[in-house]
Amino acid sequence: MHSARLELRSYRRPFRQPLKTYHGLWSLREGIVLKLTDDEGRVGWGEIAPIVEFGTESMGQAIQFCRSLPQITPELIEQIPGEFPACQFGLESAWETLTTNGAIAHDFTQCHLLPSGANAMLTWQPLWQAGARTFKWKIGVAPLNEELNLLENLFGALPAGAQLRLDANGGLSWEAACEWLQVCDRYPVEFLEQPLPPDQLSEMLQLRDRYTTPIALDESVTTLDQLEFCHQQGWRGIFVIKAAIAGSPTRLRQICQECQLDVVWSSAFETAIARQYILNTLIPSLPLSERAIGFGVKSWFANSVLDQPEFEEIWRSLEPVSARG
Ligand SMILES: [Mg+2]
Fold it and tell me: Where is the Mandelate racemase/muconate lactonizing enzyme C-terminal domain (predicted)?
């Protein structure tokens, strides 16, 4: 039986400035790089990049789980429990890179994440000059009227042809969501992402019917189980998919092909390892989405070996995961 040995190393990278969302301040991205080596010496790379606020396993749980695994086989990867979506992604993508030949780099239209609040006004211009046309702005972090004023200022400043995505991270009330959408309907807002908390799906279905600005689900559809549930409940709007925390890529492929979803691919602030798999292997194997991909997050970290394409170099730069994780 074809099997491989698993080794783990962990990374910690601070954000240049903490990312401010409704979930709070995020200042440090932690994750695990995994290396599979089979009997013939072939190597596969994977990454486990959990986001607990989105309902995934924690770093500690992922490390403990991986340490409990014997030799890695496809059968074992298939049996990873649903509570470990980031591990499902990391191990399955590593196995896939072990057993397939190199992927081809693709060019995608990117959406660029602006800082929340008034700092967005200082940031869009250099990105625009570098060719960016789609931007994302986090809302629900300051009082409603302040943010609505900022939105009007932002649209007053942005050149024609710019498109904005708004992301509330589930932080709005019903009334605030209605106010936002009334204003959004007057501007080129591509969509409002996750206006309400994940447990308010029927309210978001109502919002979708009431306003012309499209609604996207993100926190509601973090894992593939949640995604399938929302689809079964009649959600036919936009699905934001962070493949790195969604779970099994094989199952993701099946769902995307069967359900013909309107997908926005989105970063989970992963390193080049997960990013390259998602952009060069996973997305090209799926029906094409017209929407810009949400991987424009480079400016959020200092330059690092973690973003370059030589994975052995990334590996050498990291410490083995300590005995206690
Ligand atoms: Mg989001």
Answer: 118-214
Mean pLDDT of 10-15: 96
Nearest Cα neighbor of 272 from 244, 291, 245 is 244
What average pLDDT does range 36-58 have in this prediction? 96
Ligand 1 ion: nearby residues, β-carbon < 5 Å = 167, 193, 218
What does pTM read for this prediction? 0.94
CA of 56 to the centre of ligand 1 (A): 15
- Best CA proximity match to 241, nearest among 280, 210, 269, 268: 268
pLDDT of residue 104: 78
Q: Look up residue 301 and give its two tokens.
A: 């970290």
Are 99 and 173 in the same domain? no
295 C-alpha to ligand 1 centroid (Å): 12
CA 166 to ligand 1 centroid distance, Å: 9
Structural domain that includes position 185: 110-300
User: Are 213 and 86 in the same domain?
Assistant: no
Residues 98 and 124 in one domain: no
* Number of structural domains the chain divides into: 2
Q: In what order do the strands lie in the sheet with 24-38?
A: 43-48, 24-38, 4-21, 319-320
Rounded Cα distance, 69 and 32, in Å: 15
Whether 52 shows a pLDDT value over 70: the answer reads yes
